[in-house]
Design a protein that fits this description.
Elements lengths: L10 E3 L2 E3 L10 E3 L6 E3 L7 E6 L6 H19 L2 E7 L3 H11 L5 E3 L4 H5 L3 E2 L2 E2 L2 E5 L5 E5 L7 H15 L1
Parallel strand pairs: 5-6, 6-7
Antiparallel strand pairs: 1-2, 3-4, 5-10, 8-9, 10-11
Helix pairs in contact: 1-4
């Protein structure tokens, strides 16, 4: 049976191998709808960051999840935390989605799935609904692979507060 089970340090989820906790998060630079051209993970050093992957703009679950993050955005900002959404949709779709839903955080376009794959969040031609909390030094502190879009933002906020209290 050797090789059939993941080692204790390796985590698996639908979408692939997840990056290890308490190590440097996989780096990325992706085009954004924010008007800033491209956004990189390193742009957020000194702040906490929530990176959430989602399948597609304008779908029911993804819309609900994005709305909840938007509703809670002031709470995240009070915790020195930024939110980034990532999917395989292009920048124009992201802009239309943000305009339609009143989203005030960047959505990044991972058309080929390279970043989604690095985060174990890619299946077929879409990002999988996973989220990650990254600390101000760029260290991956937690991940969420079983996401309920209606309460996910609250789950992330609760965990973020715990992490910030313990660090």
């Amino acid at each position: 049976m050797t090789g059939l089970l993941a080692s204790p340090s390796t985590a698996w989820a639908m979408g692939g191998t997840l990056p290890p906790l308490n190590q440097v998060a996989p780096d990325f630079t992706l085009p954004s709808n924010s008007g800033d051209g491209e956004i990189s993970l390193s742009d957020y050093r000194g702040q906490w960051l929530v990176v959430y992957f989602y399948p597609a703009d304008f779908t029911p679950g993804c819309t609900l999840e994005a709305r909840r993050f938007q509703e809670d955005l002031p709470k995240y900002l009070d915790l020195n935390t930024q939110i980034l959404g990532i999917s395989a949709d292009d920048v124009d779709s992201h802009q239309d989605f943000c305009d339609s839903e009143g989203l005030r955080f960047p959505l990044l376009s991972d058309v080929g799935g390279a970043v989604s794959k690095a985060y174990g969040s890619w299946i077929y031609s879409r990002s999988v609904r996973h989220s990650f909390i990254i600390d101000p030094e760029g260290i991956l502190r937690d991940r969420f692979v079983k996401v309920n879009p209606s309460i996910h933002s609250q789950d992330v906020l609760t965990r973020l507060k715990d992490l910030q209290t313990s660090s």
